[in-house]
Design goal:
- By secondary structure, the protein is an alpha/beta fold.
- It has a single domain (6-185), classed as Rossmann fold.
- Helices cover 21% and strands 20% of the residues.
- The protein has helices spanning 32-38, 111-117, 130-143, 164-174, and strands at residues 6-11, 45-50, 90-94, 122-128, 147-156, 178-180.
- Strands 3-2-1-4-5-6 form a six-stranded parallel beta sheet, with helices on both faces.
- Helix 3 (130-143) packs parallel to helix 4 (164-174).
- The two termini are 14 Å apart.
- The structure holds pyrazine-2-carboxylic acid (VGL) and zinc ion.
- Pyrazine-2-carboxylic acid binds at residues 12, 17, 23, 50, 66, 103, 128-129, 132-133.
């Protein structure tokens, strides 16, 4: 059973990562049904958002790997309409510094402080994308001393290479991240 020390982190549920966007995760829409089902079972829910300036060094214009995505204050950076905004307690913007990738929700953000203020010791992670921002956020959570569980049915991978999602899960396991399904949390339906 979940307690007040458990928090939910929804990583980057933004339009640009969904079908039609410049960095679309093919089966990205799959995250929303489980997210809506479990959201209200958590006393603290954080959504992170990729929030890049237009001179971000990880965009292809500057020799980086990515097309322009999640530019600050553009429709592509908005949360999907599938996400119930009223159930989000905190929005964490990341990727603002043009020189750092900003994959992790903890990179140059107050996320760890917010979690500690709330005495959250265990974070559950879902969202986009498994092989970048979910992975980086989960591994950083472990490094910062939090228990971390990734919800396998509420994540989806970019898969630039076909097995990237699986490799990301292996890397998370090696960092001490637990795996679970949204249906195993004991949240009443
Ligand atoms: C992401 C690539 C670039 C993500 C963000 O949210 O996983 N991936 N920026
Ligand atoms: Zn990005």
């Amino acid at each position: 059973m979940l307690t007040r020390r458990d928090g939910l982190i929804i990583v980057d549920p933004q339009n640009d990562f969904l079908p039609g966007g410049p960095l679309a995760v093919a089966d990205g829409m799959r995250i929303f049904e489980p997210i809506r089902r479990i959201l209200r079972g958590f006393s603290y829910v954080v959504a992170t958002r990729d929030w890049h300036p237009d001179d971000h060094r990880y965009t292809q214009r500057y020799g980086g790997p990515w097309p322009f995505h999640c530019l600050q204050n553009t429709p592509g950076a908005e949360f999907s309409k599938e996400l119930p905004l009223d159930a989000i307690d905190e929005i964490i913007s990341k990727g603002i510094d043009p020189m750092i990738d900003g994959y992790s929700g903890f990179a140059a953000t107050p996320l760890a402080e917010h979690l500690r203020d709330r005495e959250i010791s265990h974070v559950y992670l879902c969202g986009l994308a498994t092989d970048y921002c979910v992975k980086a956020t989960a591994i950083d959570a472990r490094k910062l001393g939090f228990e971390a569980t990734v919800l396998l049915d509420a994540i989806a991978a970019v898969n630039v290479h076909p097995s990237d999602g699986e490799r990301a899960i292996e890397a998370m396991l090696a960092a001490g991240v637990h795996l679970a399904l949204s249906t195993q949390l004991g949240i009443a339906q």
